[in-house]
Amino acid sequence: MVSEIRLFTEIAYLEKAQSYQSVLSLRGVEVKLVQIEKLNARFLRLNPEIALCVDENGLWLCANGMKMQPDWNAEIARLKRASIKSEMIARACNLAEKPKLIDATAGLGHDSLLMAHLGAEITLVERHPILFTLLEDSKTQAETDPFLSQIVARIHLVFSDSHAFLALQNQEQHHFDVVYLDPMFPQRDQNQQAIKKQAQVKKQMQLLHLLLPEDGEMDLGDHLLVLAQAIAKRVVVKRPRLAVFLNNQQPDHQWQGDACRFDAYFN
Ligand SMILES: C[S@@+](CC[C@H](N)C(=O)[O-])C[C@H]1O[C@@H](n2cnc3c(N)ncnc32)[C@H](O)[C@@H]1O
User: Which CATH class is domain 72-266?
Assistant: First the structure.
């Protein structure tokens, strides 16, 4: 987990950057503010280490000359094309029934944005303080967009580790229709073949992999499956097409796509 990180910004966004600094500090991330003259592609190329930056579009994660934020606006065209019939995730999560759903591995929130658009009521859980803050920023921006605002009204963000969150739901006897899991998978292991088959792991995923620990430290999410099964009628796990089953548990049903598949466990 990142405990100290630099945040680059121009003078015009210094105040905004300071407010992100305070929020991140409350979430356990020490941010060193660095005021720079021009936050442009050249600057990012010359400063390839992982860092944050703030500009007119809010908070970004940057590394290797690239910058990334969940950017829910960029998803609008895809959302407008999507339908319950055309989306495999919609069949896997039974979105036609407008389920009460927990997405326990939020990441950039793109899967949840699509599921909320197709009718699900979503509790979106992310444990990484920087990713959570990026998500929160995306949600706040989306609330001002006429199309996205109706969708994000069905998304509730929770900053927590899902092991604790799911266990608490069970303890309090809260039940859900679906728990959706899309844990990280290592770039170099049994899933390598699956990744290689994609033309390029998306830029956003590359940056996610830089931010989240790998090499033995990576939590593959195996324990989440059992916790999820205790509180939901259906657990859906997104996996690379050729990856092993989560927790080595054989699913009851599978939906196979070109790059990924959905494994479903029914109660
Ligand atoms: C592959 S990404 C999910 C991508 C997401 N489906 C999307 O559409 O953007 C996995 C995310 O799950 C988060 N995660 C993994 N284990 C978690 C846990 N136990 N609790 C909360 N978040 C977790 C990671 O921090 C990471 O952001």
Answer: alpha beta
Return the closest-CA partner of residue 112 out of 259, 248, 131. Answer: 131
Q: Which residues line ligand 1 (CB under 6 A)?
A: 105, 107-111, 125-128, 131, 161-163, 182-184, 212, 219, 221, 224
Query: Three-state SS across 219-233?
Result: CCCHHHHHHHHCCEE
The one-character DSSP state at 49 is: S
Does residue 256 carry a pLDDT above 70?
yes
Check: CB of residue 178 under 8 Å from CB of residue 233.
Answer: yes
167: left (phi over 0), alpha (psi -120 to 50) or beta: alpha
The count of other CB atoms within 10 Å of the CB of residue 174 is 13
Model confidence pLDDT, tens digit, residues 136-151: 999 999 999 999 999 9
